[in-house]
Amino acid sequence: MTISRGTKLVLASLMGCGLAFIYMPLLIVVLNSFNASKTFSWPPSELTTMWWSKAISNTGVREAITWSVIAGLVATAIALILGTCLAFAVARYNFFGKEVISLLVVLPISLPGIVTGIALNNTFTNTLGISTGLLTIIIGHATFCIVIVYNNAIARLRRMGTSLQEASMDLGANGFTTFRLITLPNLASALLAGGLLAFGLSFDEIVVTTFTAGPGIQTLPIWIFNNLFRPNQAPIVNVVAATLVIFSIIPIYLSQRLSSDSTTGGRL
What we know:
By secondary structure, the protein is an all-alpha fold. The protein is built from eleven helices and no strands. The relative contact order is 0.14.
């Protein structure tokens, strides 16, 4: 299809406006992390790296990062196990209510975070009598991380088909050997992509965490929210936010590459 020069210019302009709408606020956050003014005067009259050194030595930031990393890693591990098992069950077997189960698995990520948070908080505190803490944060995060892994795994399983597994079994390999040598290598990139996205989603979650975190536990998003309007902490918040923006590029890029439907069959 041939596109006229005028259409190309219009499309390019719209694309530029869309990218500017998304990334200009992020760019301002990064620039404000070097702003010498505590009031974030714009444009910055002076640039400094003072806030970066203070952020590195801030114990609250380090503790918040630790809580976020622990919760994200454990929630991602749970999601990888349960999401993969669910994907195998739905993709490889026919049973009554399969489509309903598939819908129920995906449903948590479509619900508003505040609904999920309230439901989990009531379940933990009122029904089960469990005090909120790190364990409840992990369980809360795993509920929506499972969806990410499940979607990636089931898409790859459906694209793979069953011919390779059947050929392996016909040649005498048992189920475990077939899974280890055939299924898992073909599924690995999809699981890695799902794991990266699940960890990123867990690390960034604030609404569900607010309802499931116990006293004394602050993940990084909660720390940012609690310190955003404190005059002495606001510049450090910008540094932390800028760091997250920069480091988020890597897992998102890798996840996009790994989960892309390329002609390489999902392999890099």
